[in-house]
Amino acid sequence: MKLPYGKKLIDQLVSKKKFYQLVKKKNYTINLTTEEYINLVNISCGLYSPLSGFCDYKDYNSIIKKNKINHKVDWTIPILLNYPLNNIFLKKKQFFKLKYNSKIVGAIEGSSIFRVNKKLFNKKVFGTTSRNHPGVILMDKKKDYFIGGKTYLLNSALPKSNYFFYPKKLRFILKNKKNSNAAFSTRNICHVGHSFIHQYILKKVEQLYIVVIQSVNNKYDPKTLFSTYKIIRKQTKLKEKMKIISIFMPTFFAGPKEAFLQAVMMQNLGFKSFVVGRDHAGVKGFYGKYESQKIFKKFKNLTINIFKTKEPLICSTCSMVGFENTKFCRCKRSSKFLTIDGKNIKNLLINRNFLPLKKYLNPYIFNYLRKNLNKIRKFKGLNYHIK
Known about the structure:
The protein has helices at 16-22, 34-44, 57-66, 118-126, 134-141, 167-174, 192-201, 222-235, 256-269, 291-298, 342-350, 354-357, 363-371, 373-377, and strands at residues 13-14, 29-31, 53-54, 68-69, 73-74, 94-100, 103-115, 145-154, 181-186, 207-214, 242-248, 273-276, 305-308, 312-315, 321-323, 337-339. By secondary structure, the chain is α/β, with parallel strands linked by helices. The model has no long low-confidence stretch (mean pLDDT 91).
């Protein structure tokens, strides 16, 4: 099994008793957004290892200037927590309670409060300051000050989802398995392009894990995503070779840098390989088609194997799927090779344009989505709860 990224697995989950030994009842409280709560979970349960807290000024500066944390470990996106209080004075080893949805979920041991130059942040992380970029818009809406420091998460505040796995839990399962495996991350329903990549990867490894990433920006209810992959497992007889799990991760809209962070999380979960495809974590054409694959040549600290795949295309005549720049069908030259775009598929589904939609979906998935169209239209929120 691969070592955790940075050779250190963070585990800062605490019991209620230990939590109140650390944090006094009179401490200040910071209310978290959903994205901040997810980041708190990922830091404290080790998904962002070796990061042990929200970035302080030192780590923030190092990431922005050098793409590094701890002076030597590659890191691409600062994980930040907005500081909402008017008083910016910070006492030494001052703890703040962290609240989400009116419930105390954890704490941060504040080490620094600092102001961020948002234009510089946007340029360094997103590669642009354009107001057409959704990441730039979100960053500009945040308050100017941020607080960094080591975090703790209450055990009871972990997301309660049957599919959710964090490193300690999954690594325990994987450590005794000698078979080769790979992780395929997705925020989308399973279309024929995905299925083609799955079959391609399963020729190289013995087990494929579908890692459904849940966030507030997902286009589909997670239950819908899980259902489409469960259908594929059943209909293609891949129950033993294909497993479905889930993690939570904000949509950073950071393209290649987000793809790198996903790879960090997959290594921390214990996977041996990770699939990175066309425009992985791409945003509105802001990044090149294979830019998310090129970033792994630049950063060398990862030990997880990266499977780089070309874009899958579909023949307009025979509906056969294959990678671009390969001869995968025998149709005449007049045939067109179409891209398989998740956004286009969603639009066809919502507009009930079923005839062209059929070619992009497994027939069983097509029938499932057609029957559950009203649920898809009403989707809001995430599929988890905390006590």
